């Protein structure tokens, strides 16, 4: 007998969606993917750059760093479940001339190790590359593992570059680019079987550059990370309804490519929709809005982002629908905004 | 080791005793304190003997090339001890003596809390306590990767033993067999709110380091000969354990009226007392 007045729901007859294990892919069923693009790209880079070393805090397998560890066992440091030590050690190795890639989950870097990244790495402008899995809402494990606040946290940290790649190609090209950048970088990592989306476009990753992936005269999506993948899918779906949507992919969140964003916003009177896999507070949306207002632009502006809340646990497709970042919800919301005219 | 030190650092060829070096470091610190009318002079007076042995016996460095690859690294985790390290860097010829009067002033290279980008010879930015030992782990790993035989010294306070990151680093140093890392703990039993043992007691501190897999010694940090012997022992250990030396020191050492002052974390010194402090140091100066 329940004393709370809440009875557990009866088990439905059909197969339920389940919370996938963290090692599972964010790719949709049947979607083209490539395995461990981060790990393989780092191995390729390390073959020609002896300064590259890899460190993790007991999450090598879950950040694809195990690929690097197998290829270069003597350049890999297992720091154990000690994220403060992970970041401090990376800082020390950078001081001695190495280019460390330090991996963990985004929540642990942004929340637990913040002071160590701020003072030992960023304040010293050291070339430590912090690559973190499970950015935004890419796990159903609940708030302990959902880094819905990581961009907000790192945007407030001076001198650190923030990269939010869309897919396997973005990651493969971002790895050498961020290594070549002489300063700290925070990379939002997609791991495991990572969708291969951008091969179909005339696109290459350039640090600090936003790029138009698709043209369209009615809507301008400005997006990063996996929300660029969703924006492209939404744009295709909208096309069926005669709505033409452009997609401007901005994988570098900081420093933001303000010039390209202004130039695209200035073309035609499109509805501007910023789409991001992050809390609506402190992420790409606020960065774009600030840049637009500061430069005298006030287009019709809407924001697709996660709510300012600790999110539910559950299956990712359920959660993406619930919080409005699934392709179907993006299509539905965009049409609604256009109808407001 | 001593011979190598002498050949690599001409400043060490001067026939000056370690006790005299410690006196000069204390004097520099008091002169800097006078510039601000305040400061962490008590800590500087307490740690001066350790710094004298570090910079004039143990460390290999080139005063005119603070970034020389062949140097031993000396990390100041306790940023507010900057006044003490500046005093030593001036005595070592790494920082010009005439900068002493800029301590803590606008646009000075000698800010109140030590930062790497400001000061020659300052290896890291300390101040957010509990950072130094972890960075030392990374630098020690880096030196080993490069095949260097140089040491990394980290100077920390007893208060920093309360930071969890210190113990992450202590585990990491032992796990990675960093025999090239020497952790120097200034145990003056004085923190911001009172005696360290009443805050979050780290005792028995030597047992803790030993249990973490370290070679550990505990000596009187104001006995120059004991300090020198401890450095020699730490650098000569024949296995790959990281090494800790816990120095029991006295805040305000060398200036009796400061030694006995009750609250000494951030020492209050009246305007007329700076000259008295210098006189007290002069009276205790080695013959």
Structural account:
The complex is a heterodimer of chains A (341) and B (287). Chain A is built from 12 helices and 14 strands. Chain A is α/β, with parallel strands linked by helices and 341 residues long. Chain A folds into 2 domains: 163 residues, 3-Layer(aba) Sandwich (Rossmann fold); 132 residues, Rossmann fold (3-Layer(aba) Sandwich), CATH 3.40.50. In chain A, helix 7 links the parallel strand 6 and strand 7. Chain B is α/β, with parallel strands linked by helices. Chain B has a single domain, classed as Thiamin diphosphate (ThDP)-binding fold, Pyr/PP domains (Rossmann fold), CATH 3.40.50. Chain B has a 5-stranded parallel beta sheet, with helices on both faces. Chains A and B meet through helix 3 and helix 5 of A and helix 5 and helix 6 of B.
Topology:
The complex is a heterodimer of chains A (341) and B (287).
Chain A lengths: L32 E3 L1 H12 L3 E5 L8 H7 L4 E3 L4 H13 L3 E7 H7 L1 H9 L6 E5 L16 H6 L5 E3 L4 H13 L4 E5 L3 E3 L15 E4 L4 E5 L2 H14 L5 E5 L2 E3 L3 H9 L4 E9 L4 H11 L6 E6 L9 H7 L4 H13 L2
Parallel strand pairs in A: 2-3, 2-4, 4-5, 5-7, 6-7, 10-11, 10-13, 13-14
Antiparallel strand pairs in A: 1-8, 6-12, 9-11
Chain B lengths: L1 H7 L9 H19 L4 H18 L14 E4 L5 H10 L40 H14 L6 E6 L6 H12 L5 E7 L8 H4 L5 H7 L3 E6 L3 H13 L6 E6 L7 H4 L13 H11 L4
Parallel strand pairs in B: 1-2, 2-3, 3-5, 4-5
Helix pairs in contact in B: 2-3, 2-4, 2-11, 3-4, 3-9, 5-6
| CATH fold label of chain B | Rossmann fold
User: What form of chain B results from the Cα inertia axes?
Assistant: globular
Class by SSE composition of chain A:
alpha/beta
Strand order of the largest sheet of chain A: 3-2-4-5-7-6-12
Distance between the termini of chain B: 28 Å
The main β sheet of chain B shows up as: 5 strands, parallel
Q: What is the typical, i.e. mean, pLDDT of chain A? A: 94
The total beta strand count of chain A reads 14
Q: How much is the average pLDDT of chain B?
A: 93
